[in-house]
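Hey, resending since the last one bounced:
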Amino acid sequence: MTEKSILNLAYEKHKLNNGLEVILYKDNSLPSIAVNIWYRVGSANEVKGKTGFAHLFEHMMFQGSENIPKEGHFRYIQEAGGNLNGSTSIDRTNYYETLPSNYLELALWLESDRMGFMLPGLTQEKLDNQKDVVMNERRQRYENQPYGLSWEILFSNLFSDGHPYSWPTIGWMDDIAKFELDDVKSFFKTYYTPNNATLIIGGNFETAATKELVEKYFGDILPGNEIPKVISEKQVITEVKKIVHEDNVQLSRIYLAWHTDSAFCSDDAALDILSEVLSSGKSSRLFKSLVFDKQIAQDISSFQYSAKLAGSFIIASTAKPETDLDTIKNEIFDCVNKLINDGLDEEELLRAKNGFISSFVYSLQRLDTIVDHMNHYNFYLGEPNSFATDLNRYKNVTAEDVVRVAKKYLLNPFVELHIIPKTEKNV
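The structure tokens again:
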């Protein structure tokens, strides 16, 4: 898909009587369809002491429902020549399938059955099984993975205790171990309802027939109660918070994290471009200085993490052997201060913008990615066809914008995390 062709995607959007939002994007150029459903629930909808429920349901929703056997979703879709998966973030959960267009009804049946008829198939045995799966996942991907705890250490210090973003999406281990069937059922009844979801169908289909199928499979599902609002206070760090964590690693790594702007707000795009200038490619400022010229770091990365309630700018670098992390930190700030004081020229800005924009446009060569972007835009902006709006945010970033956001955010107090090798006495 070219940049020109995504400036105005035609779609239809309507709601069923139960509140389910339905978006139809027709593209008959491929003999396939993509079904993508977003539930407006993520780890931010949990509460302190009961974390990990949203991620648990990413597992439970594939364990069968009233009319579908355990692992049936995978078997039916894969036997039809399709693929499927799901993901959970702090703000939302999504499930998606891509398959030949003549199997659209299969996908709608599968998604509707776990939305409307999940609880009859939710047993204590299934819960216990998936609790063990999630706990093992946490051990393998977090606790026993080098640097695996860095994200949750950062965010539990960047956000105050009890803030919706202060716990990891997978949940704390103690909370996972205490999952109770009644709590899990209550969470499902609250959030996995048609009035808290958006269904997008994209690809090769007949509009009238598809509307009938959506009504057939989803129309009789009862809506839930009003969705509880997520409450959060604006977060401010008044002084640098330094944490040193010993881990089973060979090389030390430093993380720096600041509070920034939330998704699609005024500074969000400029912060993305700032990250490109600082660390994207061998000619970027941090890479050239730390990795190439001074050779004090193995790697360097930075990114703007944009979410609904807040944003964060994170810089991470793994030190070369015998290099002190304070040396890495000082060089990072030297580069940041040079950017703020001297600015950047138009060639550097254009290179950063083109890199970001070309990656974005290239990602839209796949139908399932287009449909997921539409759900993403609908979730944050209420407009599925926001491709041009999104691209223009980046095209309109100026060199002055990049310097301004660097000065506005990166000179503030921050969270500084050092992951260092375990000492012999603690091994």
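The chain has a mean pLDDT of 95.

Sorry for the duplicate.
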